[in-house]
Amino acid sequence: MTALTLSTAAAPGLRADAIVIGVAKGTASRSGDLVVAPGAEAVDHAYDGKLAGVLETLGASGAEGEVTKLPAPSGFKAPLVVAVGLGEEPGKDDAGSYGAEVLRRAAGAAARALAGRGKAAFALPVADAADAGAVGEGVLLGAYSFDAYKNGKDAKAKDGKAPLGEAVLLGAKPRDKACKAALERATAVCEELNRARDLVNTPPNDLNPEAFAAVAQAAAKEHGIKVQVLDEKALTKGGYGGILGVGAGSASPPRLVKLSYTSSKAKKHLAFVGKGITYDSGGISLKPAGHNETMKCDMSGAAAVFAAVVAAARLRLDVNVTGWLALAENMPSGSATRPGDVLRMYSGKTVEVLNTDAEGRLVLADALWAASQEKPDALVDVATLTGAMMLALGNRTFGVMANDDAFRTAVHEAAEEAGEAAWPMPLPEHLRKGMESPTADIANMGERMGGGLVAGLFLREFVGEGIPWAHLDIAGPAYNEGGPFGYTPKGGTGSAVRTLVRLAELTAAGDLG
To answer: Which secondary structure element, helix H or strand E, spans residue 258, and what is its range?
Structure first.
């Protein structure tokens, strides 16, 4: 992964392959003009204060994420200047700050544009340690590439070019403890987020439930996390009917992985549950062509939970965090669960399966009930659960549902702080009636309209009494089928990892209630 360092060196004398600066659209008296952002003063001076005009001649507008390259001025040791758009110049109400997410996206776009380069200096408007951390995150996430399955000249994902080797952040003091800590945090979180992306991008023939469990076991051993893996025999003995029912049609049996990070100073306990369908064919309710080609991503929730627990351990947060990975492969066969079958869940409730392609809620139900038995202070599940949520919120925003309005707000705010787009969604009680079954305690399907909310109501049935719970439906942002943007690559995105880590940090600090 790209190395991050801090430096107080002046841009002209720094040996690098490129200098990255920020430009913006002017506001107020400079409305419509291109503005060179703070941090690039030395570069602008070398162009006799005419850098903005030169960039405008080259077509730069300052639009967010726009990248413009030009030769460095005489006297610079770096041969290239890369100007990245920051959007509108901040006004007085913004206290002159561009904001962490703007810097994160800009750094990501620039890092991706510098694939194949060995070293780049980032002279973006960094006002404090939080800004330095945001730039660091943007670089590490934007430089990501997945090339494990490419050979020869195509071995590197970005047009045959390796990711940016090193990023030097200018404007932040290397000996400043806060800035140094911000970069260390960025490295830990982004390394684990990128590991989650790797898992999402791995083909399902190489990542079945057993293989995923092995990855979790290896990481747990490396970072001092306690791990327990329930195989098909243990699941059968324990009565995990939901996970077993979903995995019944596959030659690769299911697993339930429990990861436990503990701190001697912890006063609170968080439990995270992730949907881990390593491939979702739909089962007997088979998905049609055009809807199954990217279903390797249906384990994105489990990947996010896994990454968040490891990140919490690496950051040594003063909170106990337990991660539950509900892993199964949903396939059709003579042994697969059929529409009309009734499953007896780990909680003891019975579920009539009306659609085997509504399988995520079945594995989550068992894991939620298992997590509830430890009576955590809060419980959050993450899942690529419903197409309905994508229709409601699009491809870049995940929905947040909860059994407690205050906790839903806290989760939503944590997502916003982390830079992830999320939106609070209701759980209308009248939709529960649609899941009534004449045969079992509940059916796994309800009304078609509001399907994402119906799924949330189903999951609520398996949360222990009195436990604040939130459900993150990341079906939209978990896998990017379009082109890359900001620090987001094509393919697996690592959605919800930063939100979960932020929740853990807030809980450790006593700021989550």
So the answer is: strand 255-261
pLDDT for residue 94: 72
In the chain, the N- to C-terminal Cα span, in Å, equals 36
- Residue 243 CA neighbour count, 13 Å, CB half: 36
List the beta bridge partners of residue 378: 270
- Encode pLDDT of 401-422 as tens digits: 999 999 999 999 999 999 999 9
| pTM for the predicted model, two decimal places | 0.96
Task: Give yes or no for residue 366 having a pLDDT over 80.
Answer: yes
Please spell the DSSP secondary structure of 30-43, one letter per residue. GTTSEEEPTT-HHH
Question: In the block, which residue shows the tokens 């430009």?
Answer: 23
Q: What is the pLDDT of residue 280?
A: 98
Token readout for 322 is: 């337990």
Find the mean pLDDT for residues 89-110. Answer: 90
pLDDT value of position 513: 61
For residue 281, what is the DSSP state? -
Rg (alpha carbons) of the chain, rounded to whole number: 24
Residue by residue, DSSP assigns 113-166 as: HTTT-SEEEEE----SHHHHHHHHHHHHHHT----TT--GGGSSTBTTBPPP-E
Burial of 417 per CB tally in 10 Å (0-12, 13-18, 19+)? middle
Q: What is the pLDDT of residue 93?
A: 73
Confidence of residue 160 (pLDDT cuts 50, 70, 90): low
350 vs 380: CA distance, rounded Å: 23
Owner of token pair 């982004």: 190
Q: CA 171, CA 166: separation in Å to the nearest integer?
A: 16
What integer is the mean pLDDT of 88-114?
A: 91
Segment 381-407 shows an average pLDDT of: 98
The backbone torsions φ and ψ at residue 272, rounded to the nearest 5 degrees and listed phi first, read -115, 135
Residue 300 backbone dihedrals phi, psi, to 5 degrees = -60, -35
Q: Quick check: 513 and 429 in contact, CB under 8 A?
A: no
Q: Are the C-beta atoms of residues 454 and 443 closer than 8 Å to each other? A: no
DSSP 28-81: GGGTTSEEEPTT-HHHHHHTTT-HHHHHHHTT----TT-EEEEEPPTT-SSSEE
State the catalytic residues.
287, 361
Our separate counts of H helices and E strands in the chain read 14, 20
pLDDT in tens, 450-464: 999 999 999 999 999
